[in-house]
Write a structure and sequence with these properties.
The protein has helices at residues 2-33, 44-50, 60-74, 80-88, 97-106, 116-125, 142-154, 162-168, 220-223, 236-242; strands at residues 135-136, 139-140, 170-172, 182-185, 193-199, 202-207, 211-216, 226-231. By secondary structure, the chain is of the alpha+beta class. Helix 6 packs antiparallel against helix 7 (142-154). It is elongated. The N and C termini lie far apart (131 Å).
Length: 252
């Protein structure tokens, strides 16, 4: 009985060896068939690199962002958000006191009133009482006021009366009005009143009741008496003398 068991054990042992031999032979074949690059060796480091997966922490976009942040840091910029805002949103110069003052009256943005000479001249005369034939701060009439406005804002000399100024301008449609154009009215017969257009349907003039003030062109009193509008065309000498290239209301 002992011999029979021994023979059986031997058979089991031989079968196990045969299976193991096939397993190792198959493994060796797979290893042999694996092709490696000429400069690549199956080292532990290579095995580790093959197992690395791409994650948000090491993606190309993150790598690019770290490079940008590094360049900004090396440039000495401390506030990255401020730098971004400065690049994306251009900053305009802060509005002056006069721009803010008249922006409220005209109902426009302060920086849209860019002619500083015009603002200063208008503010210098603003509130001056009306006086027929007057030409000074003690009293001024409509045509003398527009003449002073053109002197101060554009360096251009206008004729003395409203009728003469009407003859001087190039006639334009009311839809073409822009800052500096003249607007004319029939208040006492013919061309008897004149003002300077500022924008947003507003014009500045020497009113008989309020003195130098700003009114709306579409107020019933003025729209019913409106005759027309005109644009002053500066001479070459006036244009060069005042160095006013590109200003609204004056063309050469």
């Amino acid at each position: 009985m002992r011999y029979i068991l021994t023979g059986f054990s031997l058979m089991v042992l031989m079968a196990s060896c045969s299976t193991a031999s096939k397993f190792f032979t198959s493994s060796n074949k797979k290893t042999t068939n694996t092709k490696l690059q000429p400069t690549q060796e199956p080292t532990l480091a290579n095995a580790y690199m093959e197992q690395v997966t791409i994650s948000p922490g090491n993606s190309k976009s993150d790598t690019r962002m770290r490079r940008i942040e590094k360049n900004i840091a090396s440039s000495g910029v401390k506030d990255v958000k401020a730098l971004h805002a400065a690049i994306i949103v251009p900053r305009s110069a802060p509005a002056t006191e006069l721009q803010r003052k008249y922006a409220v009256i005209l109902n426009v943005l302060p920086n849209s009133i860019s002619n500083n000479d015009l603002l200063e001249t208008m503010d210098d005369w603003y509130g001056t009482r009306y006086q027929y034939g007057g030409t000074t701060k003690y009293g001024i009439d409509c045509s003398a006021f527009t003449r002073e406005m053109y002197r101060g804002a554009y360096g251009i000399e206008l004729p003395r009366t409203a009728r003469e100024q009407y003859s001087r301008v190039r006639k334009i449609s009311s839809t073409e009005l822009r800052e500096g154009d003249l607007v004319f009215f029939n208040t006492t017969g013919g061309v008897s009143h004149v003002g300077m257009y500022l924008g947003n349907n507003k014009f500045v003039h020497a009113s008989t009741s309020k003195g130098v003030t700003i009114s709306d062109l579409y107020e019933s009193y003025y729209i019913s008496r409106f005759i027309g509008a005109g644009r002053i065309e500066a001479t070459s000498e006036e244009y060069l003398a005042h160095n006013n290239e590109g200003s609204s209301g004056v063309s050469n």
